[in-house]
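Wed. Picked up where I left off yesterday with DUF72 domain-containing protein. The coffee machine is broken again, so keeping this brief.
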Amino acid sequence: MQNSLFADDGAGLPPVVEATAPDPALIELAAALPARLRFGTSSWNYPGWAGLVWKRDYPDALLSRYGLPAYAQHPLLRTVGIDRGFYRPLSTSQFADYAAQVPADFRFVIKAPAAVTDAWLRDESGRGRRPNPDFLAAGPALRDFIEPSLAGLGAKAGALVFQISPLPSAWLARIPELIARLHAMLAAIPDLHATAPDGVVAVEVRDPQWLVPAFTQALRDGGATYCMGLHAKMPRIAEQLPILRALWPGPLVCRWNLNPLHGAFGYEEARRKYAPYDKLVDPDLDTRATLARVIAGTVGAGQNAYVTLSNKAEGSSPLSVCALAEAVRELRS
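Structure written out below (tokens, as returned):
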């Protein structure tokens, strides 16, 4: 879990995490990509990225607290996912701490708190205790997510993602009602562009039952876009593309989360197989090729693209970024 709260090393200064030496080939690759395209990873606190992102093998706790400035020096990493706020809302000052650590052209992909995007209030084990009265409620969404993220990140706010957790099975029959609730929440969110010119609200789901015309209409009416979640709980990328086409023209937000080889509940299996995340283990060439075409078409039409990748997608998210960036360059050459 990322933590940006500073603590010094006993000498009055925080420890320094050094970035690996810039690779001229990656600098050249980054220069060939459109400025509107921002690749990143879903987090940054992985010691196994030594030689890929970090100069050496730092402890994960040190990377979590102090690694973001070094991460942002990688030529291809111009965004990153902030998932920490999913578990507890972040304050304006915490968002401002993140913004202060990265260059002016860096943008963040931020997940909304589960207190707004989960239909259940859960206990410490993750078991649902009772229905969540704030599920997709406009007031908490504004107070605990939109307002502090914009105030803290300012122009560095990129994609503000409402990732709706898997619904209880009994709720899947209530999709029309829930879409109406989502519609009202999105309608209450003010235009981001005065504060964050590159900002976009995006909605990601983990149940394919959401993917109906009324869902697309709610996004369009609310000025939001669809966050394409590449996860084994959802259809493959080609089956999600009709939603993006229905919302065109518009930005691309994609979170490549989990290789479908592991199934819908395969995070732990992927974690065990891929750690320490220093090499590509299961390249997903079909997803990569399709996503590269979507990216090239989006940025080629002058739209922004935010694409974050998890280590659980292919084994090492920095290497996945490099491979995907190369695929985009080849399409544009």
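Quick read: The first helix runs from residue 24 to 31.
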